[in-house]
Amino acid sequence: MSAAAEALTALRAAVDLLLTAPDLFDRDDDLHTFVIGTLVEQHRLVAALAPAVARWDRLRLWANDGSLSAASRLSVETHTSKAAARCTIRRAKQLQEMPATAAALAEGSLSPEHVDLLSRANHSHRRERFAHDEETLVDACKPLLFDEAARAVNYWRNRADADGSGDNEATERRNRAARAHLHASETLDGSTVINGLLDPIAGEIFRNELERLEQTLYLHDKQMGNERTNAQRRAAALVEMATRSASTPNKAQRPKPLFVVHVGDETARRLCELAGGAVLQADDLRDWVDDALMETFLFNGPSVVLTASQKRTFTGKLRHAIQARDRRCQHPSGCDTSAVRADIDHIVPWADGGTTEQFNGRALCSTHNRHSEKRDRNAKPLPQQPVNHLAVLRAKCRWVYQRDCEREGDNEGKDSS
């Protein structure tokens, strides 16, 4: 028996054993470990199978029975859709070109979705740059939540595409607003079907207002004892938006667009993203600058905002600063609710002597903040650091020094090229 046949036999035996595993658990901890561990091994199996799939495709072994494509053969014999079969083959080929990604997948540090994310970045016009930076990208993605990893990769893509030469994707991103559309059609029974596409900023404005109204309807339903799904409340919120628009006088003052975007100054000039995490090009903001309300925050490292407040509640600029610092709900479960839609509350409660300052404040979604059984009781305030004029001056000097060093590095790179 060949080594490959022995490995397949051992795998089948292991799966047969797993099929009986649900009856073997005595404790919840064992069940949790089994679920997580099995899914990680499933990811590792994708890495183990990839070289064989790529070789099987390259040798055209799939054509032995007259199949028209590798995806067709794989789809028929594994009882999957052609789309799933094409995905398997595509990932296998991509992993042969991304050794650091394949190694991370094999050790269980990344998932197949990370493979897709990184392979989209490994576009033909970035191939050489990606090969140079792949290990750094993989190491950056390993400790991050998937959405945060996607944001990091998008920043790398923006940096790699800085000149925009030969990049169809960059051109398409610049045309996102032009591709926006909305269709509202009436069905035979008089119902209305809505579908459309908005660019990231317009979408953020729309979602923020929709979610605000949906939350209002949720509180009303809770008070009245009504039972509606989230989707039903969103539909009602959309109608409420239209109703309020129709009742607004023609000459009423137009409200400011409601969205938050984080942009860097010249020091951190590559930072440009919506509070929800969507990475933007600086050009995307051009049409909104005239209506924008600017607030500035000076950070001394990743967690200290050089600002202060003695208020009992987190409001105004201090609230916005903590949102900018935390970005998402800080519950240790990894909740990805945006800080813009979260509560900003004390770590040590005010009633227990907790102060209203950045080191004792954090973003928590309403569920993790207001439901006592879900709240994180083990959180500790951030270490106290000086927040005064001297600290501000030192931070500014540090940022300017970092900017100058980066400029020198960029100039050296241009000279060498």
Automatic annotation (TrEMBL):
SMART domains from the entry? HNHc
Instruction: List the Pfam families hit by this protein, alphabetically.
Output: DUF222
Domain HNH nuclease as annotated: residue spans: 317-370
Region (Disordered) spans which residues? 367-387
- Quote the InterPro entries the UniProt record gives: DUF222, HNH_nuc
| Name assigned to this protein | Unannotated protein
Species whose genome carries this gene: freshwater metagenome
